[in-house]
Design a protein that fits this description.
The protein has helices at residues 36-54, 67-77, 85-100, 110-121, 126-145, 171-181, 189-199, 203-207, 247-256, 280-288, 298-309, 314-321, 326-333, and strands at 3-7, 10-17, 27-33, 214-215, 220-223, 238-241. By secondary structure, it is mainly alpha-helical. The chain has a three-stranded antiparallel sheet with strand order 1-2-3, with helices on one face. The chain starts with a strand and ends in a 21-residue tail after the last helix.
């Protein structure tokens, strides 16, 4: 029978687990919890599991799984279709495999996580540490889902200082850059920059555009792939409004460009990550517009801020940008000049007060 004891402001559950296959005798085991409610729930779970095994409705428990086995399962069934699988593999091999790879999942508790966090914080940026911790949390949650672990420890992420997007191109600046881009020698690059500034699409999404993605009747653009035909960052198809300001720039280009690739390289192939259109040519266009240097990704931030300044809805903007949650989109609302314009007059004046 599982027993609950209070030890040092925590509650411990002691029990004898059923023997493993092969005749191994039951082992005395113990698990600590922060609250009595968690301890009671786990004790009930242990008793139920033992009763199921004794009644023959459940197989005896297998040997304890180590974290490496969870990763192998994730590789086979969870990561194989994700664009971020390479990032997961890198974080696992560089930061998690050596300290925790051979640890049984039930031994990876808060203390082990805090030790890993401290080691990573000595050499990595807080955002990178959080990426590693998020992967570890997902692996432990997967172990719970597979019933290899009863409960995953709570993993708290580091606080990362928020940085608002810098060098936002206002509406007037956007017009100046588009005019400067029109003189770009490379074929079609000016239309590429105008599309980026007026739709907020990512560089890879622009590189993945094909002629069939442009719906002139519905005045929208289908975003379904990125570099090399891979799925988008969210792995979901979305529709972006074809702004009226973009039509007089895009329509002539559709007639001039005979290729299926909307923004091809000089050889007619789709653009890659290191294409000069996203780097050298973009910086040259900014120089002609007499604007400070900034990354191509700031086209996306500029669109978001200009959209909100024009009275756009933040929830609709979330869908346009393809963000996973509106909290991500709120970064742009914090720097939009009119995000709170008029909100101080929502409540009526009180009689007798001014």
């Amino acid at each position: 029978m599982a027993r609950i004891e209070k030890r040092d402001k925590k509650f411990s559950v002691r029990w004898y687990g059923p023997g493993l296959p092969g005749g191994e005798p039951p082992k005395r085991q113990r698990r600590s919890f922060c609250t009595l409610r968690e301890a009671k729930a786990f004790a009930a779970h242990v008793e139920h599991e033992k009763a199921e095994v004794q009644a023959g409705r459940r197989a005896p428990p297998v040997a304890q799984k180590v974290l490496r086995e969870v990763v192998e399962y994730a590789r086979k069934y969870r990561w194989n279709h994700l664009r971020s699988s390479a990032s997961y593999e890198s974080a696992w091999k560089c930061h998690i495999e050596t300290p925790l790879g051979d640890c049984p999942v039930h031994t990876i508790r808060k203390q082990a996580v805090d030790q890993l966090k401290a080691v990573l914080s000595d050499s990595l940026a807080p955002k990178t540490v959080n990426n590693v911790l998020t992967l570890l949390r997902s692996l432990l949650n997967l172990a719970v889902e597979l019933e290899w672990l009863f409960a995953a420890p709570k993993i708290r992420l580091l606080k990362v200082p928020e940085k608002a997007p810098v060098l936002i191109l206002g509406a007037e600046r956007v017009a100046e850059v588009i005019r400067a881009a029109a003189s770009e020698p490379r074929w079609g690059v000016g239309v590429l920059y105008a599309t980026a500034l007026l739709t907020g699409m990512r560089a890879g999404e622009l590189a993945g555009l094909r002629r069939g993605h442009i719906d002139l009747v519905g005045s929208r653009i289908c975003v379904e792939q990125t570099y090399g035909g891979a799925t988008t960052k969210s792995s979901k198809i979305r529709w972006v409004p074809l702004q009226r300001a973009l039509r007089p720039i895009l329509l002539p280009w559709l007639e001039e460009n005979p290729l299926d690739v909307l923004f091809p390289t000089s050889t007619g192939t789709p653009m890659g990550r290191s294409d000069k259109a996203f780097q050298e040519h973009w910086q040259a266009t900014l120089a002609r517009a007499k604007h400070p240097r900034t990354t191509f990704h700031q086209c996306r931030a500029s669109f978001a801020v200009n959209y909100l300044n024009a009275g756009g809805d933040i929830y609709k903007l979330r869908g346009i940008l393809g963000h996973s949650s509106v909290q991500v989109t709120e970064r742009y609302a914090r720097i939009a000049a009119v995000a709170m314009a008029g909100e101080d007059e929502r409540m009526p004046m009180l009689p007798g007060f001014g």
